[in-house]
Amino acid sequence: MPENTPEYPQAHLPDVPHRRLLEGQVAIVTGANSGIGKAVAISLGGAGANVCVNFVGNPDAAAEVVAEIESHGSKAMVHQADVSKEDQVISMFDDVRAAFGTVDILVNNAGLQQDSKFEDMTLAQWQKVIDVNLTGQFLCAREAVREFKRRGVKPEVSCAAGKIICMSSVHEVIPWGGHVNYAASKGGVMLMMKSIAQEVAPWRIRVNSICPGAIRTPINTGAWDTPEHYAALLKLIPYKRIGEAPEIGRAAVWLASDDSDYIHGISLFVDGGMTLYPGFEAGG
Ligand code: BGC
């Protein structure tokens, strides 16, 4: 990664939030052993939440996330579950209830890419991405809503009965050739999130999405691993730097906290302006 120069400015941010906005709350973060999910789990823990670090592979990485959260004075547990499998999702919620009593926050983060030229895309590639990115979010959100309705509002903890944050993408609105399965899954997340939000609002359950742009994580290494790739990426980002995973963590803490209590059913773009159609700046 280039140094912090005028050409390649870097984000400046603390890894851990200063305020314990989520003290006493319980969060499940899916896909929390790497990338954005890891950063979100650490940020929620730093803000005082007890966190279930869900993962599907690489338990050592999940254990490291737990250790880091515990070092900030919150409790954490690991839970292995494939979010696209109904029985595994139900067991995960049962285990978290047994360990921490309830669930207050779900971050529907687990997601993947299986990229292919459209005519070469296999049904397996299509299905895998839809299963994890869209069906997985459905299954986890459904269990969360069941738990939030069962428990109701506890004003000493939060003014909402529960909060769901769906990890979407700029590609819920930006079409993405070569990634048709991924863009379709995120477009689906957008209207799934908004429809759930409309339905469950009367129970004081808040549902929103975060839509990251290019964030420096393992999922998109090819977009930033060389100066040439990074320069090409910056053409798509008016703010002229890549995003860092803790920046998504900070947005998640805010969306999960009572500071955003009247924010409901929105897609919060955290993208350095990627959705501003750069290119029209000098054209059109
Ligand atoms: C994708 C990344 C990509 C970014 C911006 C994300 O949703 O997972 O691979 O760099 O969108 O295009």
Q: In total, how many beta strands?
A: 7
Helix content: 25-40%
The parts where pLDDT drops under 50 for at least 5 residues are none
Q: Kindly estimate the percentage of residues that lie in beta strands according to DSSP.
A: 5-15%
**Shape, principal axes of CA atoms:** globular
**Integer count of domains:** 1
H/I helix tally = 7
User: What's the level 1 CATH class?
Assistant: Alpha Beta
Structural class: alpha/beta
Largest sheet, spatial ordering of strands: 3-2-1-4-5-6-7
Bound molecules: beta-D-glucopyranose
Reported CATH architecture: 3-Layer(aba) Sandwich
Q: Strand-and-helix sequence, N→C?
A: EHEHEHEHEHEHHE
State the CATH superfamily name: NAD(P)-binding Rossmann-like Domain
Major sheet, described briefly? Answer: 7 strands, parallel
* Gyration radius from CA atoms, angstroms: 18 Å
Describe the structure.
It is built from seven helices and seven strands; from the N terminus they run βαβαβαβαβαβααβ. It has one domain (26-269): Rossmann fold. By secondary structure, the protein is α/β, with parallel strands linked by helices. The longest helix has 29 residues, at 123-151. The structure holds beta-D-glucopyranose. Beta-D-glucopyranose binds next to loops.
How is this structure best summarized?
The protein is α/β, with parallel strands linked by helices. The chain has one domain (about 25-270): 3-Layer(aba) Sandwich (Rossmann fold), CATH 3.40.50. Helices cover about 40% and strands about 15% of the residues.
